Amino acid sequence: MSQRQASIRNLALSGHAGAGKTTLFEALLHAGAAISSAGTIERGDTVSDHDPLEREHQHSIDTSLASLDRDDCRIQLIDTPGYADFRGPTLSAMNAVETMAVVVDATAGIEHGTRRLMQYAGQRKLARLLIVNGIDRVNGETLAALVDALRDQFGPECLPVNLPAENGTKVLDCFFHDTGETDFSSLADAHRQMLDQVVEINESVMEHYLDAGEGDLSREELHDAFEQCLREAHLVPICFVSARTGVGVEELLDLTARLLPSPTEGNPPPFMREQDGDSEPVLTVADPDRHVLADVFKIVNDPFVGKLSVFRVHQGTVRKDSQLFVDDGRKPFKVGHLFRLQGKEHVEIDEAGPGEIAAVAKVDDIHFDAVLHDAQADQHIHLAPLDLPQPMFALALEPARKGQEQKLSQALHRLCEEDPCLQVEHHKELNETVLRGLGDLHLKVALERMKQRYGVDVKTHPPRIAYRETISSSAEGHHRHKKQTGGAGQFGEVFLRVEPLPRGAGFEFVDQVKGGTIPGQFLPAIEKGVLQAMESGAVAGYAMQDVRVIVHDGKHHPVDSKEIAFVTAGRKAFLDAVAKAGPLVLEPIVNLEVSIPEASVGDVTGSLASRRARILGTDTLRGDELVIKAQVPLAELTDYQTELKSMTGGQGRYAMEMSHYEAVPGGVQKRLCDAWRPHAEAV
After folding, report:
1. What distance, in Å, lies between the first and last C-alpha atoms of the chain?
2. Where do the segments described as Disordered lie (predicted)?
3. Where are the beta strands (DSSP E) in 263-356?
4. Could you check whether 469-581 and 585-667 share the same CATH topology?
5. Distances, alpha carbon 478 to alpha carbons 511, 533, 561, in Å
6. How far is CA 656 from CA 546, 611, 641, in A?
């Protein structure tokens, strides 16, 4: 295996908003001599937050990449946004790294983002690292309590790999060393605990350790066992830093270079091959001489460079002039220029091998999560999809000035190219364009970027909740479409049955026509009509889901039967069946976590109950802070931020994510159906 691949370390910095990721990113680059001085968020001169909107808002909105050299290693860093509204870019970075570091604010402790990111990284089988930041602002007792909380929350495999000393002004390694005075705990005890955890992963190392003692273990044995622990989630190291003062930053770089997995050591990415409805794993090898497999995890529509596609090479080598295919495309593109990203700077390079992150410009066919390869035999290969949160917040948009409809459409397309959690919908029946995102801030920033970058200003309307429709029972439907206009007529007759499917199953179309009563060439037309009705909704104007449609009989005319006739017959037969099948309107239910002072718990739980919430439980954090966990209809939370601020004196905060859909109460369904009926009758 190439020494070049063995010397690469890929590390993403994640964590709750305000944990200090960007400041730590700067401190690491400065300590690694990649920059002459560390920038600050307040001055707006950091390497990572280089977008004008990031400098204006003073927090990260997108991922940023930079690299440094340390002890013959190339460390490639990715700074990620902390706000849940920008979770899409954060999770996308997981496809590019072997290790996800979750930064924890020593003052705030474990927050919602901490828990979710640890969970996401574990599901993706990444090595995980907990970085406690801000050790200069708290005492040893607080840090000891935080370590206990991390172990309670994430498991006993979370162990310190170093400890703060001299009131947070230095840190001491406790993996290779066992003597020294620390701010809490005993270095000897921490060393023994870490060593015991590491050696037990490998039977031969453990036997060697038990027979000969620690002193006889080589550093190579310890490294290999440590790396295996990370790969198998048997160990989550905890390290301590102060990004502001630089304490612990050198030690973090040493840990990264010496102990974190390289592309040859990390768990292989979950590539899959899809063919004929079957899926099988594809094992990649970090070998520069094999055929190319790379995954696009970031798209940037740069006003000066054009479309920039950022990818991680997992196998093979991408060079200037390489011919690469995109997904299942049959026409390759030629790599003209190849770049390495250093913040906003694009450094031209000649090649990128396994483990390296690079970018190509101006290739229109590339999209987020596309697989780049150099062999047509590698068609139908993709990475297992990320569990991205569903965009639940919506705004209806229209250009502020007439004549900009096309410009708006193009701008929205480019924004959605960059962010997998932004979605655009066009509702023909309402003549409405809807932008969906993960929260108010997500949508606000998207609109600001659209105005700043593309010069498109918009008017917005109150968000529409993403209701859905379905059925609760089986029913038969029938429609005969017959139209005679003096010339050629139209005729098509359809008998079908609808059946409910489990939640999330989608749509099934089944042909059970016998005897040729409906010729096979008209079945796609019937399906088209059914899908038109499902898209427009049957009772309240919302898209339908989880329905099986079985076409079993009908009639045709040898002259007058045409595609349009069966589109109409299929649509109206479907609507006839749905009306008899107990139609339901479904609403999105979110998992809500509300962090509040203990004194506000009565007001907050009462408010949630009035919003049809189901309280799932409460967790006590440090001090007098509580976290209330609940499931709540999204429609009940449109003004929640204002009320929560009022109830808690500005101290409350909340985070939410999509859970599932369930039927709305009867009164809500009647209101939604009554509001839609005039439009349906007009159509």
Report:
1. 66
2. 42-61
3. 271-275, 278-282, 293-302, 306-315, 318-319, 323-326, 333-334, 338-342, 345-349, 351-352
4. no
5. 15, 14, 17
6. 25, 15, 12
User: What integer pLDDT is reported at residue 428 of this predicted model?
Assistant: 67
Q: Is the pLDDT of residue 124 over 90?
A: yes
Segment 174-200 mean pLDDT = 92
User: Are 32 and 68 within 8 A, CB to CB?
Assistant: yes
Nearest to 288 by CA among 585, 2, 634: 2
When the candidates are 3.30.70.870, 3.10.450.50, 3.40.50.970, 3.30.1330.120, the CATH number that belongs to 393-464 is 3.30.70.870
Where does residue 595 rank: exposed (0-12), middle (13-18), buried (19+ CB within 10 A)?
Answer: buried
Contacts of 530 (CB under 8 A, 6+ apart): 496, 509, 549, 570, 571, 574
User: What DSSP element (H or E) covers 114?
Assistant: helix 112-123
Amino acid letter, 240: F
Residue 1 scores a pLDDT above 80: no
How far is CA 221 from each of CA 206, 228, 265, rounded to the nearest angstrom? 10, 11, 14
Q: Let me know how many helices (H) and strands (E) the chain has, helices first.
A: 17, 35
The CATH number of the structural domain formed by 469-581 is 3.30.230.10
| Percent of the chain with pLDDT strictly greater than 90 | 71
Compute the mean pLDDT over every residue in the chain, rounded to the nearest whole number.
91
Full 3-state SS string of 14-72: EECCCCCHHHHHHHHHHHCCCCCCCCCCCCCCCCCCCCHHHHHHCCCCCCEEEEEEECC
**HEC states along 193-210?**
HHHHHHHCCCHHHHHHHH
Among 502, 568, 476, 581, smallest CA distance to 530 is for: 568
Q: Which tokens go with 227?
A: 């790396």
Please, are residues 413 and 457 in contact by the beta-carbon 8 Å criterion? no
Which of 128, 120, 114 minimizes the C-alpha distance to 231? 128
* Domain 271-383 homologous superfamily, CATH: Translation factors (2.40.30.10)
CA angle 419, 590, 438 (to 5 degrees): 20
Phi-psi region of 46 (alpha: psi -120 to 50; beta: other; left: phi over 0): beta
Return the ∠ at Cα 9 (arms to 5 and 10), rounded to 5°: 115
Angle in degrees, 0-180, between the axes of helices 219-231 and 249-259, rounded to the nearest 10 = 90
| pLDDT tens digits for range 167-180 | 999 999 999 888 89
pLDDT digits (tens, 9 = 90+) for 495-532: 999 999 998 889 999 999 998 899 999 999 999 999 99
Using an 8 Å Cβ cutoff, are 309 and 363 in contact?
yes
pLDDT for the residue 238: 98
Query: Phi/psi of residue 427, each to 5°?
Result: -95, 100
Domain 585-667 class in CATH: alpha beta
Q: Which CATH class is domain 3-259?
A: alpha beta
Residues whose CB is less than 8 angstroms from the CB of residue 274 and which lie 6 or more positions away in sequence, other chains included: 380, 381, 382
How far apart are alpha carbons 636 and 631 in whole angstroms? 11
Q: Which two tokens stand for residue 137?
A: 């602002």
CA separation for the pair 522, 544 (Å, rounded) = 23
pLDDT over threshold 70, residue 166: yes
The rounded percent of the chain whose pLDDT value lies above 70 is: 97
pLDDT at 429 over 60: no
Q: Where are the domains of the chain?
A: 3-259, 271-383, 393-464, 469-581, 585-667
Residues 6+ apart with CB under 8 A from 72: 7
* The two structure tokens encoding residue 525: 């037309």
Residues 49 and 64: their CA atoms lie apart, in Å, by 7
Q: How many CB atoms lie within 10 A of CB 446?
A: 23
